[in-house]
Amino acid sequence: MKSKERPYVRRSQKDYSMPFKLSVVQEYEETDISYSALSRKYRIQGSDTIRQWVIKYGSTDVIYKTSYPMNKPKDLKIVELEAQIETLKRKNNRLEHELENRDHKAAILDILIDIAEKEYKIKIRKKLLPRAADRYKEVEGLSLTQICVLLGINRQFYYRRKWSERKNKQKAEKVIQVVHQLRRDMPRLGGRKLYHLLYDNLRELGVGRDKLFTILRANQLLVTPKRSHKRTTNSFHRFKKHKNLIENIELVAPEQVWVSDITYVSSAKHHYYLALITDAYSKKIVGYDLSESLSTKGSLRALRMANKSRIYTEMELIHHSDRGIQYCSDSYQKQLKKYRIKCSMTESYDPYANAVAERVNGILKDEFSISEYNLSLKDMQRLIKDTIHIYNEKRPHASCGYNTPDFMHRQNKIKIKTYKKSKQIMLLGLNILFLKRY
Fold it and tell me: Model-level pTM greater than 0.70?
């Protein structure tokens, strides 16, 4: 359907404002535009309207104005041209200087990239050129062909790298998804254990250990260990302190040695104490108790739980701990004798003397973040129960060949890794170095 034409409306001089008239007059005087062209441009009615404005408001005599401007004197024209040439020379010199500086800067950046590729073994040009091309295209508005010519690459290389980046991004998203699923139960599980648990998934995706760490690092998913220590051991008491029976012992089976310790669990408003008993061979937590005090009662409840869970009752068992008052007390020693368990204690304040217990404490507090929740005693006990179940049943342990503690506790064929010998060798090496120097 055709639209109706707008009706013709005759305008008078009052319909045009004074600023508008003056601007039209100024444009006529400063350019070579004709009256009719100005009328069409601004839709001014009347063939003589603009001429009347020029006569009335203009600064030139319309009657004597010609269509051809008067030629300037030859000398004046030469002076103006010489001035223009001098201006162009200065501009050209400035542009040449800027271009030279840019060439130097580009050469220095090329050298920096060469050094970085050589020292850090990263192919920066190969990996980042497509991304740099996209960013420069957005900023400068150049075509892809122009950018490829500037960078010395062809379009096929660009599209191959883009396809590879897109494929790697999709692969990384799948890896992050399975990592998040696994970390729902173990929120701070480290990269090596993630690789062990996700080995089959990663193999299907074509992701190796180094690639996994690269993906975790790029997405801020690498965990950093927390450092915190609260002393819970009181060794200054009247009770008997027992000898260390496990200093040179070789761990070959579960329920050969139990290690016991108490760790401090704090939240915003509450403070608790977690007594743990761990099998030194399998690293399984066999007994635990959470209470609001450091009394011997919590340690005794953990001991009763551990004894109740025993499956190798015919074996001789050693209970190893620090010299804390809870373990040296008469009631605790009496319970050990009742269960026919030998007592062993550290003879120094070296944390390596009870390293397994200290390590398990750190795992529960660091990887499972049990100290980050403001919970009542009842809720915290439920959290500790679920956490220890996940630790025993799901979390692989490096010293156990990345098997779970529960799996290790049900067999005695696998030889565990020990770091005691390597520590002794390191100390021996330091002593030899010291003697050679002095």
Answer: no
